[in-house]
Amino acid sequence: MQIINASKEICAQLLHLCEKLNNQEYACCSSLLTGSSIGKHMRHIIEFYEILRKGSELGEVNYDSRARCSKTEEEPDIAIQRIKDIISWLDQLTVNNDLNLCMSFDLSKNEDVQLKSNLMRELAYNMEHAIHHMALIRVLLTQQLPHVNVDVNFGVAYSTIRYNK
Prior knowledge:
CATH superfamily: dinb family like domain
Number of domains: 1
CATH architecture: Up-down Bundle
Number of strands: 3
Strand order of the largest sheet: 1-2-3
CATH topology: Four Helix Bundle (Hemerythrin (Met), subunit A)
CATH class: Mainly Alpha
Strand content: 5-15%
Structural class: mainly alpha
Low-confidence stretches: none
Distance between the termini: 23 Å
Order of helices and strands: HHHEHHEEHH
Radius of gyration: 16 Å
């Protein structure tokens, strides 16, 4: 399935980046990322995929309820293992489950809004979400870690890749 294969490509790009970075490069906070780090963006991407994996089994997804594992922000080896687990999950996907998406945009209340969604729609969202964060990571790589080579399409939307061709 197209969305699954594209998601695996995105995860593979993230995996290859983690394999190229040492702990300091991975965890170093940068003003280019508003005080964030590659590791923090990587953790954020990984946790969204993991929430979707768990939610696909439960029938409900809530991206707001994340663990925010600081070790994943600091150690690329942990991110590598978690990404490999995501790829394994993607390899096993065969059905497009219906899901309830829970979210809240109200800062004063902890009141969720529920929307109908499905696994493939949320997988597409996760992929686009990852690409967005990868584009930010690419800015840091270009400016501060130019020795770290990534795929020419790292952080570029599929529609932009097609347009550029």
